[in-house]
Amino acid sequence: MKFGVILQSNKPEHVWNTFRFGIASLKAGHSVQINLMSEGVEAEDIPDSEQFDISKKIEEFKSLKGILLACGSCLEIRSKRKSKVCPTGTMKDLVAMVGESDKVLVFG
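RESULT FIELD:
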């Protein structure tokens, strides 16, 4: 199954659970694409804590061949030129993900 995931939150627990879901899905043989939108593009800036090892989850997701894109417009609004952890995507990429996915989930 193809899962399309939209992460719109910068709350550590939301981000952590989004990547946990992606990792579990990839390990179960599904394909997963996570699009970071709105505050979700700030995920890379959230420091790891005892409860939420976000940077490790992002790296594990990528190492399992999960697809990760950050909204270019959302980055620009935050005065960022690009993401430190993934390529920049566009609305066209998001539309393609939604159209190609069997299920679309929104976190945050």
